[in-house]
Design a protein that fits this description.
CATH architecture: Orthogonal Bundle
Keywords: Isoprene biosynthesis, Magnesium, Metal-binding, Transferase
Catalytic activity: isopentenyl diphosphate + (2E)-geranyl diphosphate = (2E,6E)-farnesyl diphosphate + diphosphate
Structural class: mainly alpha
Family: Belongs to the FPP/GGPP synthase family.
Cofactor: Mg(2+)
CATH superfamily: Farnesyl Diphosphate Synthase
Order of helices and strands: HHHHEEHHHHHHHHHHH
Number of strands: 2
Distance between the termini: 16 Å
EC number: 2.5.1.10
């Protein structure tokens, strides 16, 4: 990564982190524990790829950064809620996330579930605020619809249910790609779709090219994740490895082998 790109990425991440921090500040002592759990997971680090992608797409499409920011951060909240729930014993049963205890190991399962629910709910609250601030709120409503579809049964959750099914039987290559497009890819398409909606540029060639780029990133993320589950180190990744093999899941590695998976990644 060249220094200029790295500097821009860090600047955008700092902006996003400051916005997220402001939204999950504790409001009431009676609610303190759920805010603590929300902050624990939301502000635990990470590259902020999804919100940075939204801001970058907005810039390409000629939209002001401040108008995109609420939608960008809403997507990051949804991503974080999905990680909290993904780590639960009923799902992937992972004890570690980003180098420390996962939310349910730190706060208990009930609080972790509520923290995830609260982040999902707050995501649409801040996206709605972003829509109301636009001269044409309908653009914001379209952005919210794109985000909802990307997070729901047509997107991430649809991919998650196929992922659970992959624990009970071998799935085909087409099913694996379906899983990847939704479980991982949907929340990488959402930033582009939301930014294009806010910019009024959904039907433009630029938006189509940005979506192709997002799809490529989504596929690469999933292949890389499958490889790291075999070859990765918990001390580097910050989460447990070997879970796919333990659960008997079909992955790019089990379908193609390590070497071909690495070739696909390149």
């Amino acid at each position: 990564m060249n220094n200029r790109f790295s500097d821009v990425l860090h600047q955008k991440a700092d902006l996003i982190n400051a916005y997220l921090d402001s939204k999950v500040s504790q409001k009431d002592n009676l609610q303190g524990i759920v805010y603590e759990a929300m902050r624990y997971s939301l502000l635990a680090g990470g590259k902020r790829i999804r919100p940075v992608l939204a801001l970058a797409a907005g810039q390409v499409l000629g939209e002001q950064e401040a108008r995109i920011l609420p939608f960008a951060c809403a997507i990051e909240m949804i991503h974080t809620y999905s990680l909290i729930h993904d780590d639960l014993p009923a799902m992937d049963d992972d004890d570690y996330r980003r180098g420390r205890y996962s939310c349910h190991k730190k706060f208990g399962e009930a609080t972790a579930i509520l923290a995830g629910d609260a982040l999902l709910t707050m995501a649409f609250e801040i996206a709605a605020e972003g829509a109301l601030a636009l001269e044409d709120p309908k653009r914001g409503l379209r952005a919210i619809r794109h985000i909802a579809l990307s997070a729901g049964t047509e997107g991430m959750i649809g991919g998650q249910i196929v992922d659970l099914d992959a624990e009970t039987r071998a799935i085909s290559e087409s099913e694996l790609r379906y899983l990847c497009e939704r479980k991982t890819g949907a929340l990488l398409r959402a930033p582009v779709l939301a930014a294009a909606a806010v910019a009024g540029a959904e039907e433009t060639r630029s938006a189509a090219l940005l979506l192709e780029y997002a799809d490529t990133i989504g596929l690469a993320f999933q292949i890389k994740d499958d490889i790291l589950d075999v070859e990765g180190d918990i001390s580097v990744l910050g989460k447990a490895t070997g879970s796919d093999a333990k659960d008997g899941k079909t992955t790019f590695v089990t379908l193609y082998g390590i070497q071909r998976s690495k070739t696909l990644l390149e």
